[in-house]
Structure formats: C-alpha cells, structure tokens
Write a structure and sequence with these properties.
The protein is α/β, with parallel strands linked by helices. The chain contains ten helices and ten strands. The strands form two sheets. The protein has a six-stranded mixed beta sheet with strand order 6-7-8-3-9-10. It has a four-stranded antiparallel beta sheet with strand order 2-1-4-5, with helices on one face. It binds adenosine-5'-triphosphate. Adenosine-5'-triphosphate binds next to helix 1. Keywords: ATP-binding, Nucleotide-binding, Transport.
Length: 261
C-alpha cells in the first residue's frame, strides 16, 4: 500500500475573480500529523474543505488512498467519507442532542445502527477522549469549551476513521485546555495510527504535535517539511511567524527532542 494517504495535485480554487489556490500540490503521508499554517485568508480551510468534498475545486485532482475523489459518485464518496473524521472550528455539536446522541449520530447516519448500539459505542468513544460517563447525558450548552472539543473529537472518531481533519481545534481554549487537547490528540494519534491533517494558528500546537508543517502562501504550498526545516525557510512570512516574538517564545519552551531539535 502507498505511503501517501492524500495527494493533492495542481489544485485551483477560485471564487469569482478571487483565486485562492493555483497549482497547489501537497502529499499527506500515512500515519503522520501534518500541520497546515498560513496567514489569514491564505486558503487553509478551503484546502481542507476541498479534500473533504465540501467545496468543489475549479481544477486539479485530489486522491485519497489512490482514489480520485473529485470524480467519485455520491455513493462512492460516502464510502470514502466513512474513513475520515472531521472536527470543525467551534466543535459544531447539535444543540438539541445530548453528548451521547451527538457522538452516536455518525453511527446512526452512516451505518444505520439503532440508538442502543450506537449509544454504547458513543460511550466508549467518550471514555477514549477522557470524559466520564455522566457527561453522556449532558446537553452541549452546559459543556466547557474544552469539553466541547473533546466531544467533537469523540464524534469525529465515531466511525474509527484512518484520517482525522481538524480545523483550529484549540481556538478559544485557554493555554492549559489547549495543551491538554494537544496531548490527547497526540496520544490518540499514536494509539490509533491516525493520519492527521491539522489546520491551526496555534504555535504551541505546531511545536507539540507536528511531524511536518505545510505553509500556505502565494496561493500554493510554499514549503512542506519538518518543523526545523520550515522554520529555517527564507521567506518573510515564515520568518516573521516562526521567529517573531511569539514564535521565539514557543520554540524556546517547546522544541521537542524527538523532532530533532
Ligand atoms: N464559499 C466562498 N465564497 C467566496 N469566497 C470564499 C468562500 N470560501 C472561502 N472564500 C475566500 O477564500 C479565502 C480563503 O479562505 P479560508 O477560509 O480558506 O482562509 P484561511 O486560511 O482558513 O483563513 P483563517 O486563518 O482566517 O481561517 C478567503 O479570502 C475567503 O474569503
């Protein structure tokens, strides 16, 4: 089997006159955590939505495990979608469903499971993300920001996906909550062998969890490599991002030995 989970080639996304991506190439390797960074409006979310089939690109190809997903029928696409979990910004839980029902939803919708069986699996997923059983009956409105992210992660993992997509998962969390979420993500990624596509602005997360970092700039992937190589890349935005005051503070605190730094 190929080592490439996702291959994006010559991607173009255009909204009216506004070209967001042009000639964008990117490979995501099986079992890695790839972090996608870039300035506001550089097209990180549009890239993620394109891979997920939520935005139809203007041109180019996207393969997931070798399948050209832009050319699949709706039914074939559903089969691919069952293998991907997504955590959207803000968690996006359904406010009318309790925690267990939220997590159970993909099992009911995609696999047609009954409420009891789906609820049992949801309880296991809840434990997986470190929440106790009582949380299952709670409504989303009563959860803290950190708990919402954990429940959304449990829901993203409901179908036992190989690939996990996360859009700004630590946005809105305090530094301690964000650090805990990153540790949980790392533990689960390693335990479950997940391929992770992570969009984030959070420098602490980038240093803690990335195997490789892709920088989106000038409508394409400007550089994709290990963190130390990307941080050394000679580009104004990259240098300001990784070596500005915030970047320096994080790199001094968090450079992890296993990343060779
Ligand atoms: N459906 C759409 N219609 C028109 N323009 C869009 C649409 N979706 C995204 N865009 C535009 O595409 C550009 C890239 O948006 P995107 O949300 O991907 O940026 P981003 O890198 O994720 O930014 P941020 O870091 O601020 O979240 C923006 O200028 C946005 O306004």
């Amino acid at each position: 089997m190929s080592d490439i989970a996702i291959a994006v080639r010559n991607l173009r996304n255009q909204f009216g006159q506004h070209v967001v991506h042009e000639g964008l190439d990117l490979d995501v390797y099986r079992g890695e955590v790839l972090t996608v960074v870039g300035g506001s409006g550089s097209g990180k979310s549009v890239l993620m939505r394109s891979i997920l089939g939520l935005t139809q690109p203007t041109a180019g190809s996207i393969q997931i495990y070798g399948e050209d997903v832009l050319r699949l029928s709706a039914a074939e696409r559903q089969r691919v979608d069952r293998n991907t979990g997504v955590l959207f910004q803000k968690g996006a839980l359904f406010s009318s469903l309790n925690v267990r029902e939220n997590i159970a939803l993909p099992l009911r919708e995609h696999l047609g499971m009954n409420a009891n069986d789906a609820g049992d699996i949801a309880s296991l997923k809840l434990a997986l993300v470190g929440l106790d059983a009582q949380t299952a009956e709670t409504m989303p409105q009563s959860l803290s920001g950190g708990m919402i992210k954990r429940v959304a992660l449990a829901r993203a993992l409901a179908l036992d996906p190989d690939i996990l997509f996360l859009d700004e998962p630590t946005a809105g969390l305090d530094p301690i909550g964000a650090g805990e979420f990153d540790s949980l993500l790392q533990t689960l990624q390693q335990a479950l062998g997940l391929t992770v596509f992570l969009v984030t602005h959070d420098l602490d997360s980038i240093y803690q969890v990335s195997d490789r970092v892709a920088v989106l700039s000038q409508k394409k992937v400007l550089v994709v490599d290990t963190l130390d190589k990307v941080a050394a890349y000679q580009d104004r935005w990259v240098q300001a991002y990784f070596h500005g005051p915030r970047g320096r503070a994080v790199s001094n605190q968090q450079m992890r030995p296993e990343h060779g730094n």
